[in-house]
From TrEMBL, chain A:
One of its GO terms (biological process) is peptide transport. Pfam families: ABC_tran, oligo_HPY. This is ABC transporter ATP-binding protein. The lineage of its organism: Bacteria, Bacillati, Actinomycetota, Actinomycetes, Streptosporangiales. Residues 347-356 have a biased composition (Basic and acidic residues). Its main location: membrane.
UniProtKB/TrEMBL annotation, chain B:
GO terms for molecular function: dipeptide transmembrane transporter activity. It comes from Streptomonospora mangrovi. InterPro entries: BPD_transp_1_N, MetI-like, MetI-like_sf. This is ABC transporter permease. Belongs to the binding-protein-dependent transport system permease family. Keywords: Cell membrane, Membrane, Transmembrane, Transmembrane helix, Transport.
Amino acid sequence: MSTQPDDVLLEVKGLRTHFTTDTGEVRAVNGADLTLRRGRTLCVVGESGCGKSVTARSILQLVERPGRVVGGQVLLHRRGPGGAAETVDLAALGPRDRRIRQVRGRDIAMVFQEPMASLSLVHRVGNQIGEAIRVHNRVSRAEARRRSVELLGRVGIPAPERIVDAYPFQLSGGMRQRVMIAMALSCEPELLIADEPTTALDVTTQAQILDLLADLQDSRGMAMLFITHDMGVVAEIADDVAVMYLGSVVEQGAVDGVFHAPRHPYTRALLESVPRMGAPRRERLPAIRGSVPDPAHQPSGCVFRDRCDHAMPGRCDTTVPPPVSLADGRRVRCLLYGGDAPAGHADPADPAHQFRPDPAGASARRADEEAADAD
Amino acid sequence: MRALVIRRLLYMVPTLFAISLVAFLVIQLPPGNYLATYIAELSARGASVERAQILALEERYGLNEPLHVQYLRWIGGILLNGDFGMSFAYQRPVADLIWDRIGLTVALALATMLVSWVIAFPIGVYSAVRQHSVGDYAATFVGFLGLATPNFMLALVFVWVSYRFFGESAGGIVSPEFADSAWNLGRVLDVVSNLWAPVLIIGAAGTAVLIRVLRANLLDELRKPYVTAARAKGLPEWRVILKYPVRMAISPFISTIGWILPTLVGGEVMVSIVLSLDTTGPLLLEALQSQDMYLAGSFILVLGALTLVGTLLSDLLLAWWDPRIRHAQTEEASA
């Protein structure tokens, strides 16, 4: 991993999470790639069912049966004991492995979509936060409680000494989500995964929670992986954005670049379907034609080709597009930018020649495997 | 919480009154009374009964008085003197007859409940956590067997097996050699050693129900987001499961306290008869058949009161166990 810059915290490479059902194997995540840098916020966007939540859960091995992580790597570059850098492949650990449990909550913490359902209603707030502290730190109950109160104060809960003894059902939705955030921050994680943390909240509360998360992320220099389907949220908090479609990341890059010059046809279509202030009123918003294919019966080649205006017959239906690196660290999975020529022999006439091909070469190998899989 | 307890205790007073009234009236419902049955028996044996003798008996038992007077005399005796009246058939005070049997029934109910908890808890949790495993299927199979087999059938099989293969006549709670001795360590051990079979037989169906309920509840709970959230903290799996979903799924165990006694009294008469257990069931049945009204009425009254206490206990325990119930009831009380 010596080629990786220092500030890379987590790399997801070719992650595959499958669900075994009676009707067949559903590939919820089918070769997803993500790169998270320290201190930055990466937003993962996509339609319902594109596998963004499952990707987030796969990182911590939290996918429930019948789902399981079947391939790929999740490389966490953390400072090990003594400050030396070490790399752990989380995808290689079992869901009940002691090593993944040490990562959960300590290196990587998670905030979930529904604060009502994600907190236990019959345990006091202080108990649930204190427990998160005591799993990873040898501290007394009194010390855990003191820290819980402090955390509750830091996430903007009024009268934290009182709320620490409250039950979650006595709190409002926004307060509950603050409690979840306090719990996630309890062990000072390097990465916070937020899985649609504002979807279940009303608009005012959404804005407050977003501000809080952006604040905390800034003041602690932690990285954040933020799952959402709301483009407004992305514009507000993201440094980088990754667009997912049907289990794979079709485009990743800095948020300004992706929003202003989307490369992948799907990203373009997605951005065009977002209503804009000041846009002509009576015009219908463009919608992406067709619908998302059933993940159990994915088309061959590029999974977006049935809905794509730029589909190239003979190429898009035979080759699974590998990730192609463009300028500014942008990565796109689309044959318009190359990727179907044999690795290392890019045709100069191909539009891809102006962009650096994927340096690792691993992605080309993976593309071949995937093409074989798809057949 | 204290207000809740007081309120629930107050509610018990009218309920107890209603139970006593119903217990008394139900016994009066069938035509005739103990004397009629008694006289019919005497005549059947060819003995003649004189009119004067019948009147004397009626006078003695107070049967010639109107219903409400009989009721008030009976309930007044209980409340003021703890006097439950006379049993016609045994010619002894009811109080002498019922307490031993009620004590045994309650002991049996408690033992059955504890044993079913101890058996059902690990099996139920295992079967939910390892759903579709061999162990789960085995537990389900045995559970359905337990559910489908009438308890008296199990009792009969047990008696047959212990006689046929071990040459012992099973049955009874106190072995013959201790029958007349006072309570000492030997007698206690003897009772315990005789109690396990009835407890298992009577508890079979209830245990199977608890396993099924716990498994179903826990399966629902295991899929809830708070379980994933607890895992995301880095807790060990067994702690995640025992602290969160099991806690939510186990309320039915507490509810058993409320219904175990009535089930036992109503449902296990056959088992008690087969295993010759001196519980309330057989004597209550006998008392009802011979219209021994004070005996039957007192049984029903005391068992009803005990059931109320059981329900109260289980409700209070549930409120202690689940803060949502506690807070809902406190709010309701203050509203």
